[in-house]
Amino acid sequence: MTEAGRVPVVVFKSMKLLETDDHCPSQHEAWTHVRALLPTDRELERWAREKGALRRRRGVEAATALLRVLLSYACCTLSLRGASEWAQDSAWARMNKSALRGRLLKSTPWLEHLLAHLVARPSAHPPLLAGLHVVLADGTRVTPPGVRGSGWCIHTLFEPWTAQTVGLQLTDRTGAEHLGRFELEPNQLVVADAGFAHRRGLKAVADRKAFFLVRTNWCNLPLETRHGRPFDLFTSLGELQVGQCGAFEVQTRPDKANGLPAIPVRLVAYRKSEEAARAAQRKAEAEARRKKRKVDPRTLVACQYVLLVTNVPKAKLSSEELLDLYRLRWQIELSFKRWKSLLELDRLNVRHPDSIRATLTAKLLGALLVERLVAKREAGEATWTCTQRIARAVQQALLGEQAISAILRQHSPLRQPNESGSRERQRPATQKRLAHKLESRERQAFAA
Question: Which residues, listed in sequence order, are joined to residue 213 by a DSSP beta bridge?
């Protein structure tokens, strides 16, 4: 208290933080929930020394305090000056904005190590689908203001059943989408869009004894019959009626120049409705006009179909089940939308490449902390709403305003229990239907 009996308030970008000499119990409780997801103090200290983040303790006494300051700067949209003043007022660190920027740059390897540690431990026993661990692969780009080019790319592996990230890589604009950059395990099934339909990436998945389900088009993945003869794609597709699904046993064409052998695959094709086909054709024509070129007639024909290639045996998943499974790929797009809309991952106020990499790494670490806390919630609350509330609570936990326990406890004002009193986790209809179908088939096989 001051002599006037009032608590002074420091304002950083419309955020009000109370200046106190010590931290109230609610602040300790809030930080404890976040801190439980991170390594122990001893491990943080050891890794900070090894990675060069805390070889000199000038202005900061502990690795935990340094991590909290860096996360507060990256995840709470504070400026360097605002974060440094907040750190001094809350007694977490004593450094000005230049010193904080230097600490941030030196802490990049340390933050990357912590990020890899958090990604590697999402769940001990992930759900299996027909004996396969399904993950979704995709990338999203982040372009800071004033930076030319395509910005930075975040390559991600995502579990649709647990809604958690299980693989993460941050590259600059030269890092292209490629399935070979992910460390896949045997019996993992990776689902990806047409940007990953390349022979080198598919071979990398097959070499790891894993499986792929990738969308393709008529030209980016050359195919041939299992006997090495040319495969007439459009003649085969012409036999399908609207709403019909077909499968063709083919293989990728060998690339002797790059040492890529033929890969046996199954081509799954589904003919769209007339309305969906016309919408896809209009989109292709608009894209051609934007690039000032003529659209290939074969592209308009291919717009009538959904084409998937996979090396999953037919005994594990049928063609219809694979089409249902591919519809889950939108879950990773929704994850990117939560990162950018709710967690402001693409909101950067730095331009130097080293500063961008350090800030993005800290933001990703904060995003994964929120994601892990969302996974701990009780069933019955929408992921978007829960992410929004927990992200706000994590910011308050970092800045020391309010406890996070109200978000995670049993009775929540936004949860709506069903008639039976139990809270079922809400999933998309396609996801529930696919899981029920495969569970029924596995029960029948077990009974037989």
Answer: 191, 310
Which one, of 184, 193, 135, lies nearest residue 164 by Cα?
Answer: 135
Q: Give residue 238's pLDDT.
A: 92
The CA distance from 218 to 203, in Å, is 19
The pair phi, psi for residue 223, each rounded to 5°, is: -120, 155
Closest CA to 193 of 72, 87, 329, 310: 329
DSSP state of 272: P
C-alpha 358/C-alpha 372 separation (Å) is: 21
State pTM to two decimals: 0.82
How many beta carbons lie within 10 A of that of residue 128, not counting itself? 14
Q: How confident is the model at residue 322 (pLDDT cuts 50, 70, 90)?
A: very high
Sheet strands (E) in 6-116? 9-12, 15-18
Contact 284, 299 (CB under 8 A): yes
Residues in the chain: 448
Cβ neighbours for 238, distance < 8 A, ≥ 6 positions apart? none
If one compares 86 and 417, the residue with the highest pLDDT of the two is 86
**Integer Cα distance of 269 and 231 in angstroms:** 14
Least confident window among 54-63, 270-279, 325-334: 54-63
Strand pairing partners for 249? 266
398 touches 72 (CB < 8 A): yes
Query: Among 213, 276, 279, 223, which Cα is nearest to 253's?
Result: 223
Q: For residue 55, what pLDDT band results from cuts at 50, 70 and 90?
A: confident
Residue 422's SS3 state is: coil
Residue 116's alpha-carbon distances to 8, 112, 122, in angstroms, are 40, 6, 11
- Do 158 and 182 meet the contact criterion of CB atoms below 8 Å apart? no
User: Which residues are 230's β-sheet partners?
Assistant: 224
Backbone dihedral region for residue 211 (phi beyond 0: left; psi -120 to 50: alpha; all else: beta) = beta
